[in-house]
Every structure is written in structure tokens, then in C-alpha cells.
Amino acid sequence: MNEGGREYTGDGSVDFHGKPVLKQNTGNWRACPFILGTEGCERLAYYGIATNLVTYLTTKLHEGNVSAARNVTTWQGTCYLTPLIGAVLADAYWGRYWTIAAFSTIYFICPLPKRYVEGLNPEISLSKIGGNVYIDTLSRPVPGLRPTECVGSVCPSATPAQYGVFFLGLYLIALGTGGIKPCVSSFGADQFDDTDSRERVKKGSFFNWFYFSINIGALISSSFLVWIQDNAGWGLGFGIPAIFMGIAIASFFSGTPIYRFQRPGGSPITRMCQVLAASFHKRSLEVPKDITLLYETQDKNSAIEGSRKLEHTNELKCLDKAAVVSDAESKSEDLSNPWRLCTVTQVEELKILIRMFPIWATGIVFSAVYAQMSTMFVEQGMVMDTTIGSFTIPPASLSSFDVISVIFWVPVYDRVIVPIARKFTGKERGFSELQRMGIGLFISVLCMSAAALVEIKRLQIARELGLVDEDVAVPLSIFWQIPQYFLLGAAEVFTFIGQLEFFYDQSPDAMRSLCSALSLLTNFIGELPELFDSDNSNLPHYKGREHWMDP
């Protein structure tokens, strides 16, 4: 949109003060470093806790493998359920910017309860940071909250108070991440004008580098932070994520002057309920053959704040009845009750959401595969040979190969695969979102096949050496797990990034955070089989063991 020689965005975006924004001064790639930096630091903080959580629960709180896997799975599932809260607040009331700001603050304070539980390893000298800020107070755990160490082979269970403080911090993180997850990727994509073909292509590339930044943070966590937690103490290991979360908040606010903002459009859940109520109330009415008779505002803009008008589609015609103007409404000229009469745009919003559900369901399968990385893959590694000479490899640190795989495949996909595919398909992004997700699902099958072959070999060696009931690792190198981690990373690049693109591009303007949250919900549902499996008292036993994964 040009006015007086100045080009404004055409997608309705505004600046921090609610005024139309100029393309040359805002958004685009100039705003992305702040958002990518925010996401990278936030993911470092998250994975700094999540990656090694099974190890913490088994070695410090003295839980069994099954109980630890169940607790981690439940927590991770919650982290993918709470985005619905943040999404509704962002789309309806606060907007994505203020939702990220509010929940980031909650996120920032969450690792502190765990620092007070653990303190710092007394052998680590960290009395100063930068020569000025003393952390001696945080270095001392609160009496009675630090888990009791094992005495010989006796490992006392954690007390209710220790569990309470630890899981309080853990589930506050789940709440904090819920406000951030569905908003950051959408807020980053908001920086590119949908009405500009050049910026639209850049937006597709943004999703690739957004996921790249996630995995840079994850790489540091799965290697450096895992080593810190295993060797320098859990207090420091939980304190570093808090520091990086503070850096994430600072990075996010630094870009405020050049961000593009989309106005919140009111509750999408309320609008969907209004369509259902109105269509049910008018179920006996006929939908006119002339679709121009269906109710829509006469203005250029939609009646929904921050949303462009949507064209009528012929699917799900039963919902069109919500936009039929009845004789009574026509005579009284009272068109103000949204529970009796909805606009075409409002009806089409619900239609789009319904059409997304079959694609959404396919994401559950991949999420179930991805959930194995932080539970069963780690437990599998714990009963394998983790030594190289005198050096011991933390089993959770092998997830860094998944991250390395993502870091390798993102630039290869963006710079090599997409240009080649574009020549054959003629598509701007090389593949459609659905084609990209399908390729990722196929690679995930190869991933689990590799993991199954490793487990078959591990159990075979255990039987041959008579180690089935012995509390020792099987002499099979943990590095045999590398292929399954590497394949999982490749699958992520296709599936997860494809989901990010699909649920942003195909969603209505005023429901983008909600649709992003729905895509994350597949991760929660994908965690459920793992949760039920680890909680099942009828799991197959082998020679009296509690679970097949026990050594």
C-alpha cells in the first residue's frame, strides 16, 4: 500500500503505538535477530532442564526408571497443553507481544526454586559473576529441601516438601512456556507481509531458521549443560537456564521499536461457539443459492479486529446457516446479535479449523516418536556401555546428535533442497507443507527401525553374557544410538517445520496463535501412549524385572 511515496504493509499490521507501519523501517529480516535470539535462549533454558530430567529424577530424587519416565512424560505433555492458554490470551486480548512478555517473566523465575533446593557444588568457586554480583546466598540450599544422598546401596526417597518445591518450579515452567510457544513463531512470521510476494518467500525461510535457533539452544543444553549438571552440580546446572532466560527477555524487548504487531481480534473460541449456536438455531432455514445474500459487513475490513475478510467456500454448508438473514431479522433490521447471526468470515474461520483437523491428527504419530528421545532413548543408553577410555558419556548428552542433525539439515534444506525442488515442482518453497510433512513421517519410520535394531542387539548380548538380572551395563557402545538420533533430527526438519508453516499459513488471521497451539497439542497427545505405557502395572516382565528396560 503506497501513500505519498511511502510504502505501508498491506496485512493490517501496526507499530507499538497502533499506527500503520512503513515496510522499509520495520519487520522483515531486520526484526528477526531479536526474535531468533529470544527463541534460542528460551530453548536453551527449557532443554537445560528437560534433557537430563530423567537422570535427575533417578539419581537425586531416587525414582525408578518407570516412575521417572512417567513424570518426565507428564511434564513434557503439560508443556504442550498449556500453549492453549497463551494462544487464547494472545489472539483474544493481549496480542502476541504482550503474551510473550508476561509469560517470559513467569518462565524467568521458575528455575529459582530448583536452585534453592540444590544449591551449588561446594567444590565450585563461583562467588562472583562479573566481579560485582554475589550469588553466595543462592549457592546455599534451603535446609531440608536438598535431596538426601545415597548411603551405600540405600537411597532414601525424597520427602513431600522436596517433591513439592521441585515440581512447583517444574510446572511453573510448563505454564511459562505455554504462553511463549504458540506466540513466538507466529510473532516472527508476522514480521513478513503476506500481501507482498517477496516477503512471503522470506517468511518460508524464516521458519527454517527459527527451528535452527531452537536447536542451537538445545545443542548447548544437551552437551555443555548436561556435563555441568553431571559434574559440577545440579544447582549450577539449573541456575544457568535462569540466566539465559533473562537474556531471552532482554533480546525480545530490544526489538520493540522495529516490530510489526497484529491487533488481537477477540476470543476465537467465543466466535466458534457463536457460529455453532447460530447454525443450530437456524437449522430449519435453507441456505440461499446466491451466496451474496449471506451476511457480511459492507466495509472493506472484516468485523473481526485484525482479520481480513474470507471468501465463502462450498464445504460444510450446514454452518452457512449461521450467516443466513432470517425474515424476522430482515424486518426488524436487528443484525447485532452474534449468537443468532454471524458473518461469512466468522463462519469460514470455523470451516478452516475443521478442515485442518485431519492434517493435525497426522502430527500425533510423529510426536509419539519424538517423545522417545527424552525417555526411552535415554533409558536405553543408561544400560549400554557409556565409557570411552576413562571418560564417561552422560546418556542424555547423545540427544546432541539429534540437534546436530537438525543444524546440519536446516541450511541444506533451505539452500540446497528447496532450490532444486523448486525447479521440478514450480512451488515457491520447493515442497508444499503437506509433502514436507509426509517426507518427515517416512524418515521417522526409519528412526524407530534403527532404535529397534539396537535394542534387539542389546538384549541379545545381555542374554548371551548372563547379564539380564545383573545391575551392570551391557557391553554395547552407546554410540550405536547415533543413527536413531540423526534420523530423528532429519525427520524434525521436515515434519515440525512443515507443521509450523502449515498452521500459520492456512489459519485465519485472528486465530494464528490458536492454530499454532493446536499443532503443539499433537505433542501432548503423542506423549500419552508413553505415559500410559510407563504407568501400566501389567507391562511385560522378564525374569522378575520391573520393566523391560531395567538392566
UniProtKB/TrEMBL annotation:
SUPFAM superfamilies: MFS general substrate transporter. GO terms for cellular component: membrane. It is a multi-pass membrane protein. It is found in: Membrane. The keyword DNA-binding does not apply. GO terms for molecular function: transmembrane transporter activity. Its main location: membrane. Pfam families: PTR2. Keywords: Membrane, Transmembrane, Transmembrane helix, Transport. It comes from the Eukaryota. The keyword Signal does not apply. PROSITE patterns: PTR2_2 (PS01023). InterPro entries: MFS_trans_sf, POT_fam, PTR2_symporter_CS. The chain crosses the membrane at residues 206-228, 234-253, 352-373, 393-413, 434-454. GO terms for biological process: oligopeptide transport. Belongs to the major facilitator superfamily. Proton-dependent oligopeptide transporter (POT/PTR) (TC 2.A.17) family. This is Uncharacterized protein. It comes from Fagus sylvatica. The lineage of its organism: Eukaryota, Viridiplantae, Streptophyta, Embryophyta, Tracheophyta.
